[in-house]
Amino acid sequence: MERKPNAGRKKIEMKLIPASDARQVTFSKRRSGLFKKASELATLCESEIAIIAFSPGGKAFSFGHPSVEAVINRYDGQTQAVDGGDQNGQEDDLPELIQRYNALLDQLEVEKNRAQAIKNMGEEMKAKTWLLTPMENLNLTQLQILKVLMENLKKRVNQQREELSKKARNPRPFLDLNAVEAADPSVSYNPTQKG
To answer: d(Cα 64, Cα 28) in Å, to the nearest integer?
Structure first.
């Protein structure tokens, strides 16, 4: 079996690709290759790298190790140092940055607790709202719970009714004059005696 000769890798002439669709495809393929090489360089040499590329359509693509912002900030810091800025400014900012980081961690914890409380309130409200649901839409467990709640309510209503009926049968007088003691024991009150 004879192998056909193939073109293999061809050297591409470095000039503008005339067709815009082909230019976009080439950009996408070469961009991913460029970012892959940059990642390898960062891994092999422990270097910090930032690449920003704009597509023919004007869309921005970036790659950075550890991040584009970190590399740009470091670059800005070095250019300021060359221009006469203070390089120790970054070291002076470290305690402030640690303090801000800890404050953000505390805030994050508060927000997590708040989110959990809101979630719990939502679950409680959901649990309570099924009591207002028409009975036809309740499942067996909900119906059994509703039955127990209704039985407890019936007992409480009957107890309250009995207490009220006892009070109605034995009314307490508004003022029992015989039960009132005079402030002076020598004085007594006799309702038949005229005054």
So the answer is: 17
Q: How many CB atoms lie within 10 A of CB 189?
A: 10
At a CB cut-off of 8 Å and minimum separation 6, what does 81 contact?
A: 87
> DSSP string spanning the chain?
-PPPP---S-PPP-S--SSHHHHHHHHHHHHHHHHHHHHHHHHHHT--EEEEEE-TTS-EEEEEES-HHHHHHHHHHHHHHHTT--TTHHHHHHHHHHHHHHHHHHHHHHHHHHHHHHHHHHHHHHHHHGGGS-GGG--HHHHHHHHHHHHHHHHHHHHHHHHHHHHHHSPPPS--GGGPPPSSTT----TTS--
CA dist., res. 133 & res. 126, Å (int): 11
Residue 186 has pLDDT above 60, yes or no: no
Q: Name residue 54's amino acid.
A: F
**Torsion angles phi and psi, residue 175, rounded to 5:** -145, 115
pLDDT tens digits, one per residue of 91-135: 567 788 888 888 888 898 999 888 888 888 877 777 667 667 787
Question: Tens of pLDDT along 68-88?
Answer: 888 888 888 776 554 444 445
In terms of residues, how long is the chain? Answer: 195
Rounded Cα distance, 192 and 195, in Å: 9
